[in-house]
Amino acid sequence: MGAVEWITLCIEKSIPSKGEGKVMQLDATQILFPNSTPVICTDPPYYDNICYADLSDYFYVWLRKTLGNIYPALFSTMLSPKNNELIASPYLFDGDMKKAEKHFTDGFKKTFSLFAKKSNKEFPIAFFYAFMQVESESDSQDSQQKFSSTGWETMLEGLIGSGLTITATWPLRTERDQGLKTGDNVLASSIVLVCRPRIEGTPIATRRDFINTLKKELPLALRNLQEAGIAPVDMAQCAIGPGMAVFSRYSKVLEADGTQMTVRTALQIINQELDAYFTEQESDMDKETRFCIAWYEQFGWKEAAFGDANTLATAKGTAVNTLENAGVIYAKAGKVRLLKRTELDVNWDPTTDKKLTIWECVQHLIKALEDNGESGAAEILKKIGGLSEPVKELSYRLYALSEKKGWTEDGLAYNNLISSWQSVTDKAQFAEQVSSETKKKLKDKSQKTLNDL
Fold it and tell me: pTM, whole model, 2 decimals?
């Protein structure tokens, strides 16, 4: 009943008192709304994630028994129809995944082409896409791992191939966090791609043109997403929007050999630029923090030889004893490791720390958040002051590293810090305001006492 009540409330709030809603069951690849130019906002099927028709059979068989005589046209088949369902389900094609994928892509192209022709041109088309399926493959030339997503790839191929271009990305917090806590393959947000029909006569670009434009425009978009507090778990998906906005503005992007660049390649390039963006942010951080990031990437929380630490410290312009004095590593008996959060001093105060590092600030904030909630973290954030932005940037960087390494627990900790950032910031600002007002009252009271004397 909760779901029914929520939907009812949404309808009551969003439709004018004299409004009228109509529901039609249509094949989106064949017909839109007859004799109309609708504003389109849709949540399309998610590749092979959900077999909607199969799930509906759970209810269909009972509805057919009870309502079959009342609505014979709706229940004319023994089970719900499945052949035209727009999902990449191989069992509908004798187990052939390539045929299933072609069915999905072709159906999307037909649907999106219809959207581009029939939609109201005064409004953009909005696609919700909360799909998270990341795959990796090794590049034999540079031995780097490249990340892509089949679900995103096929959806975008259909979108771009139908003559649409992406003009904006709207990340919306629409999901509950249960999946994040249990490790399910979900996002914290839905990603809304805002699209319009591509203007005819758009230019052709080379691979270099695409990459150069991406390097100019993507960092600003990523900065805006960070400032908006987008959770690190969503950042790779959010980056697809502004990245593909560059890619889709061209009629085609040509590789060096003259072939047309695929959506998969474009997604891999966007992910590489995302990594480069987070790596570049390190250059503005203190050398001790840069050492910790490099060590964490290589060894995590495990110990390694003193010689390795000494070599890395020298390369970062610091020394092992300096790092030890800064309270970021533990060194003994020829072994070195990063200090774990459980080993951090609970009475640590950034205002009295003689060698304050961004790395320390991040780890202490997470410890305070886990031990004392948002109020505890707010106490530290209030004292950190101007370091809050690089601390936030480092949290994104460390989440990205944790995700690549498969360190789920660490990734969850960094993600939770950013997800709670706005609330922690609000509490820190409130505490600062209360502190100032209290000091003023004490000063006024003190003055009054002196005057009375």
Answer: 0.70
